[in-house]
Amino acid sequence: MRHSLACVSACALALAATTGVAQAQDGFTPQHAAQQRQFEASFQEGVSADDMRSLNRGFSRRPHLVGTPNQRRVVDSALAKLKSYGLDASLQSYDIYISRPESIQVSMTKPYLRRASNKEPKLPGMEDYEDVVPAYNAYSPPGDVTAPVVYANYGLPEDYAKLDQLGVDVKGKIVLVRYGQSFRGVKVHVAEQHGAKGVIIYSDPKDDGFVRGPVFPDGPWRPADSMQRGSIQYLWDYPGDPLTPDKPSIPGTKRLDPSQATDLAKIPSTPISYGDAQPMLQALGGPEAPDNFQGGLPFKYHVGPGPTEAHLNLDIAYDTEPVNDVIATIRGTKHPDQKVIVGGHSDAWTYGANDNVSGFTAVMEIGRSLGRLLRKGWHPDRTIVLAGWDGEEYGLLGSTEYGEQFAKDLTKNAVSYLNMDGVAGRRFGAGGVPSLDKLITDASKTVPDPSGKSIFDAWRGNDAAPSLGRLGSGSDYTVFLDHLGVPGMEVGYSSGGGEYHSAYDNTEQVERFLDPGYLGHQAASRMSGVLALRLANADALPLRYSDYAKQVDAYVTELQQIQQSNPNAAQVDLTPLHEAAGAWGTASTALEAKAAALTAGDSPPSGQLNKINKALLEEERLLTTPQGIPDRPWFRHQVYAPGINTGYAAQFLPGLRDALDAGDAATVTTYRDLLVQSLRNAANTASAAT
Ligand SMILES: [Zn+2]
Fold it and tell me: Taking Cα atoms as reference points, which of 162, 113, 135, 182 lies closest to residue 294?
């Protein structure tokens, strides 16, 4: 292990050096590019897998749910470490409305009585096991309901349509759904819309259990007695403190009455294991479930209703708890106001060795390695902010309140936000807004993957280029991108496993199965650090809006295809969007050419560069609209939002998409015109700086 670690570290330098010489660097003058390559190489060298092992083990020693003394210990220890790295670090605290499980009871009451368990069995090596929170859904209302059960597959709208065809109504029933395909809050919301009385969510073995492979502790997959905890906050409506949408939860902010909070569910819900779902499913009568409803348990699934009956008795209390973000700042010397932010959440459902001690450790390690460079006299040109967000698991609490508190400054000065949520693994993944595609792709060529190839080569596999994801919601980039219009991206590593939000997301899982040697941790930390360094130091910001314009144009084409294939879709003329996106693309290409010409020499006029950078910094903001997208005023970005029926996955052109499907021509016209105006403003901004 030690030998291979050393090799990877040596390869890093070799790679950085060779590819560096061969390549011009977007946005850097030749002289500055040479310097930058040195900084990147010594930064990468300073990122140590051994150090990350000890950081990860420390932070994931005990369960550390938001608001608990254990989480306070994690926060305080991170703060002390960042200071010991020589960074200027402090806490940013909020008081947030949070749920706590008092007693969680789930029973099958018919055809026979059987109590479900709400916690995994303790395995050797699990410290402070009594602090593992019972499996429950954060922000579920309390409730005591008994009803016949209906099995509704993943709980997607199309699953209810299938049930309808089978003549099965879920009104007044308890819906049993499996995890996967959509965010769990969406499952509860869709069940609520269909009149269900309560929801039980289980993890089917076909999705992350024995069907996939050996289960923990023999392998990484989910055992029969493990359950997935999680928040069911309606975060596509708004995330953060349910009582302070759009405002920070600090003293003086007026709180909503909880009954006014529209991001809270009205029916009780809770998760169970497949060991406990099995007898409920097996006893179900009614029609046989369609093929795509069948899971991995060894019998034919039926949909019910009944004779299975279940009783949910959920005693869930609500109170206000402190949520503490850890923020470290490395002040830029040339443009101190401009900020590149790198963050990951520090809280976890249980031990959280993967989710998200791994990502948080990667952020911390960037701080340690940059601290080393600072001591040698190095400084970034722009300010780099490192953030450990608290309360992400309950509803992106710490990041959302931070974004709302510093909205004015971030809107003016944030260059980009980079998120890390899960870096324990062997498979690289990245995504973000299209303007960052080239930067991410370029950077991936200089960072070694655990496989020994560059990240770029491992990531693209047999394709010519890797494919990048787009951001929906479910992690801390949401407030930055969707609310404020800050270019967002996410970088991570993953491996197949079923530990998600269970008591077995622990050190053993990470070290034996997900990320032996912490090599995924190391590569992710290096990759994110390189991205941050490029954004912080570039003479001309490497944000390519010509790529963004092309992507928007392709989205418009997709909407037109929907119009053609669905006669009920709103038939509003979308060609003005093509024209506006085309003009933005042309203006952006000209701006990029100007920036490239200016940075081709070693002393570009700083006035012209500042003008270009100001335009580049502004453009993503121009894609937002102050009124927000239809019925979701908190979500202001007009190109990306989380889907109402997906939650995690991105919905593109959200102002138009739902209204188009619903045949609402008036709304489509309104949002078409708003977006056309935004695209024109962006084009004009680019032209004015060229
Ligand atoms: Zn997470």
Answer: 162
Residue 508 sits at φ, ψ, to 5 deg, of: -60, -45
Q: For residue 153, which of 196, 115, 187, 110 has the smallest C-alpha distance?
A: 187
**Cα 686 to middle of ligand 1, angstroms:** 36
- Which residue has tokens 């993944």? 429
Q: What does the DSSP 8-state code read for residue 292?
A: G
Give the per-residue pLDDT at 40: 97
> Once rounded to an integer, what is the mean pLDDT over residues 142-170?
98
563, 568, 574, 577 alpha-carbon torsion, rounded to 10°:
-80
CB under 8 Å to 413, separation ≥6 — which residues? 337, 338, 339, 617
pLDDT tens for 554-572 read 999 999 999 999 999 999 9
Least Cα distance to 359 among 528, 231, 195 occurs for 528
314 and 270 in contact (C-beta within 8 Å)?
yes
Structure tokens at 422: 């899960």
446-480 residue pLDDT tens: 999 999 999 999 999 999 999 999 998 889 999 99
Cβ atoms 190, 261 nearer than 8 A:
no
All residues at 6 or more sequence positions from 198 whose CB lies less than 8 Å from its CB, including other chains: 143, 145, 147, 174, 175, 267, 268, 269, 310, 312
**Dist. CA 91 → ligand 1 center (Å):** 20
Residue 184 Cα to ligand 1 middle (Å): 14
The 10s digit of each residue's pLDDT in 236-260 is 999 999 999 999 999 999 999 999 9
pLDDT single digits (tens) 316-358: 999 999 999 999 999 999 999 999 999 999 999 999 999 999 9
Q: What is the dihedral of CA 512, 513, 515, 516, to 10 degrees?
A: 30
Tell me the per-residue pLDDT of 521-540, one tens digit each, with 9 for 90 and over.
Answer: 999 999 999 999 999 999 99
pLDDT at 22 over 80: no
Which residues are the active-site residues?
392
Whole-number Cα distances in Å, 386 to 59, 325, 378, 428: 17, 10, 17, 22
Query: What is the whole-number distance in angstroms between the Cα of residue 34 and the centre of ligand 1?
Result: 36
Q: Taking Cα atoms as reference points, which of 679, 468, 487 lies closest to residue 586?
A: 679
The confidence score (pLDDT) of residue 8 equals 32
Contacts (Cβ under 8 Å, ≥6 apart) of 271: 135, 136, 137, 179, 184, 200, 201, 202, 203, 227, 228, 229, 230
Supply the DSSP string of 175-243, one letter for each residue.
EEEESBSB-HHHHHHHHHHTT-SEEEEE--HHHHSTTTSPBTTTSSBPPTT----EE---TTT--S-TT
One-letter amino acid for residue 62 of the chain: R
Nearest partner of 200 among 267, 264, 122, judged by Cα: 267
Contact in structure between 587 and 683 (CB atoms under 8 Å) = yes
Q: Is the peptide bond before 217 cis (omega within 30 degrees of 0)?
A: yes
For residue 625, report the distance from its CA to the centre of ligand 1, in Å: 29
Q: What string of DSSP letters covers 268-301?
A: -EEEE-HHHHHHHHHH--SSBPPGGG--SSSS--
Residue 201 and residue 179: Cα distance in Å, rounded?
Answer: 6
Q: Are 422 and 358 in contact (CB under 8 A)?
A: yes
Compute CA 33 distance to the chain's CA centroid, rounded to the nearest angstrom.
31
For residue 6, what pLDDT is reported? Answer: 31
Peptide bond into 307 cis (omega under 30): yes
Q: Could you give the CA distance from residue 25 to residue 442 in angstroms, rounded to a whole number?
A: 9
